[in-house]
Amino acid sequence: MTNEFNQFVSIQLTKNEKNALYVQLYNQIIELIHSRVLAPGYRLPSVRKFSQYLSINPGTVVNAYKELEKSGYVISHGGSGSYIAEKTSLMELDMGTVMADCTLLEEGWENKQNGDMINMRSIALNPDVISIKKFKELVIKVLDRDKGKTFSYEESQGFLPLRESVVTYLKERHVSTSAKNIQVISGAQQGIDIVVRALLNHGDYVFTESPTYPGAIAAFRSAGAKVIDIPMEPDGIDVIKLEKYLQRFRPKLIYVMPILQNPTGISYSIEKRNRFMELMRYYDVCILEDDYLSELSFRTSPLAPLKALDRDDRVIYIKSFSKMFMPGLRLAFLCIPEYLAERILKIKYITDISTSGLTQRVFDLYLREGVWQEHIAHIRKIYKAQFDFAYQVAQHAFSDKVIVQNPQGGLSFWIRLPQKILAKEFCLQAEKNHVYIACGDDFYPRHIDQSHIRISFSLLSLQQVEAGFHILGELIQERM
Amino acid sequence: MTNEFNQFVSIQLTKNEKNALYVQLYNQIIELIHSRVLAPGYRLPSVRKFSQYLSINPGTVVNAYKELEKSGYVISHGGSGSYIAEKTSLMELDMGTVMADCTLLEEGWENKQNGDMINMRSIALNPDVISIKKFKELVIKVLDRDKGKTFSYEESQGFLPLRESVVTYLKERHVSTSAKNIQVISGAQQGIDIVVRALLNHGDYVFTESPTYPGAIAAFRSAGAKVIDIPMEPDGIDVIKLEKYLQRFRPKLIYVMPILQNPTGISYSIEKRNRFMELMRYYDVCILEDDYLSELSFRTSPLAPLKALDRDDRVIYIKSFSKMFMPGLRLAFLCIPEYLAERILKIKYITDISTSGLTQRVFDLYLREGVWQEHIAHIRKIYKAQFDFAYQVAQHAFSDKVIVQNPQGGLSFWIRLPQKILAKEFCLQAEKNHVYIACGDDFYPRHIDQSHIRISFSLLSLQQVEAGFHILGELIQERM
């Protein structure tokens, strides 16, 4: 019997671990597939024999196999057994998964904001903090100045004065570039999607942090890329594991958020950044850096973007203006290595020809007239207070069995629940009590996570923040 | 020798034809590939033998082979000869070609409008005909009404009130649908791209009219689809040839513009429409109908869209609002069969999450308050006069050797040059004389066309229209 199970000697299942046994088994088989101990076409042991070998209930093996099949790692051929999938079937655009990734942001918070509902799920600024007066003023200014031209075809690369404003904006963040390396896009999601289409072929490997932003996972999968996720540690990505995987796979791209990572809120330490950049250079990987919310670093002054360290032109930097204004703005930019500019431009053209001319022209004035800088200062002030308050309330509401990932800033907390509580069930329970939170599971490309939730406080009044954490705290108490 | 050339008996080259001999040879070899007389892997005859067999200059064969290689039909293995490409290499995303397709619209007309330049290349409304006053009024109305919410995340499917307004708008055009089958998009190009990504797999066949819109070709190619173009006749697509190809290939999709087709300006006759729909039903093909400029049918009252005849849910209808307003607006919608709605929604989400909320809300008021209908009436009046004038001037400027495709309306003419004049050279010549026109070649996915040009009159004053045609007329005279 030992012979048949040689490949599985590393499997260790622990009953008092946080994750159910079948989840542990599922995650460990995935590790074996990724590390190529189990090759495509390999036939998994029968349920009966495997459960005997592992001394567990056959139902546990059945459940693990089912999950492996659902996520495309395993193909079941009726009576003849379960086989590790060929690479190709792993790459299939799994629309079901894409959809699951999407739902997180798709549900407008507006719909969830009614009545007693407390929306701690969505991350977006509260519409009340936006100065509509200023926006109106600048729209009128643009329309009076440019008249019908406001709506002419813009250059696909973006309205040149805006690209020049962006260059000035980047200079203040220690990134020196020129307008020809700026590509205006309709939001960060479009930026990720365009980069994916310009760079990746069906079957290419992409690395991400784990957990990570689900919209990015969806874009990678839609291109047929294979996503390998590398765990996050409190000071940034796990560089040991990263190197291990870099040796095995040859990813074309790694997608990272080095400052206030979504969903963990972690910022990379200087040491981690340096080591990370070294590895990328050594293994020659292109970096997609999503500057998510760096303006909201409250505890430490944020480091410059990786793009500022990009000596050998491997960083594609995405910055959304929508996130620090309002998501419906749909405006962002890419700062790209020169050799990619033309390719990216073509895909932008195919995608939607150009971004709204009105939005671009108005936003150019925002930057040019210093309105943006004032706006950010205003937002920082408000959300610093909101953040401090929320952290205090969370500390008070939760026992020390609940771990609030030591947050550096941002609009949400990443929280590890006590062992006994499963995240998915807890989220449903919270919903029944009118509090919406995000389940950690949605942020993992492949692995199942039953420990984490993300709690946002960005759309709420202080009263609601307090009420929300109070309800969640009580629910946890009840279940202990 | 006859045996070796069995496959080529159909080849007929005529010296006094419009197209150069190598172009004729190139086009006829492509026909043989499409009709599968020449299979992938087939080795083409050596230049020497083939030129002997055809009684032509070896240089002619060399040139034809080179063109075939450029467009991916043939692969050359150094000394060992030229082979018909495997299907896969035909599908490769050919960024060079995509780029060529794009340049047509990419160059902003603004840049070409300086000084003496007469831009008869771009099709877009003149910015002066847009009422900026009205637009401003409605922007302010929306901002005052919705405040910060104007910029909240919109539903990915689109702002519901706008989708409802679109349903009403469609009812007037004999299309009955509901808001759940409307997908708001950021311009027609995005619509084509999203449909492509939702429906097509690498290697699928797509049919188009020939000539057709280059942005669509670029989107099809970017998905690795193989484009087969079916010739246009004066009353619509060539249904005989269409059926012949339907029997051979199994296209998933056909892309058509049944009213004022771009670039030919042709509208399908009722008989053609009916036969076309019959064929689509019989061969079970999904139709992507791009309603390009139907509002500008001046000679005949336009028929309803094909979508109005869509009894068995196979038509995806794209309507851009940008084209009849200003291209920089980036707003359009898809009317889709219900079974595709979810799939399309997911791709829209991956592409850019949602279309600008401000634009959607303003445009909802345009439709709801009847401003759009007034706008269209205004545009029709102005461009009817422009069209009649341009047609009159063209008749006067060109001899009867120049065939102005009998136009039904729109903003441009599709023109066949006299035999002696090659379109590409003529376009360059015109440019030297400060007149920009579009070369017919750019509108053909595969075939080379040396006969046609497209002349637009949409951005010009009447004086410029007259001057432009005058210059072109003289250039033609000179070359006869």
Termini separation of chain A: 41 Å
CATH topology of the largest domain in chain A: Aspartate Aminotransferase, domain 2
Name the pair of protein chains with the most residues at their interface, and give those residue counts: A-B, 66 and 65 residues
Quickly count the helices of chain A. 17
Strand order of the largest sheet of chain A: 4-11-10-9-8-5-6-7
Percent range of helical residues of chain A: 40-55%
Q: What CATH architecture label of the largest domain in chain A applies?
A: 3-Layer(aba) Sandwich
Number of domains of chain A: 3
The CATH homologous superfamily of the largest domain in chain A corresponds to Type I PLP-dependent aspartate aminotransferase-like (Major domain)
Structural class of chain A: alpha/beta
- The protein's oligomeric status is homodimer
Chain-averaged pLDDT of chain A: 88
Report on the architecture of this protein.
The structure is a homodimer of 480-residue chains. The first copy, chain A, is α/β, with parallel strands linked by helices and 480 residues long. Helix content of chain A is 43%, strand content 14%. An eight-stranded mixed sheet of chain A has the order 4-11-10-9-8-5-6-7, with helices on both faces. In chain A, strand 6 (226-233) and strand 7 form a beta hairpin. Chain A starts with 20 loop residues before the first helix and ends with a helix. Mean pLDDT of chain A is 88; it is low at 88-112.
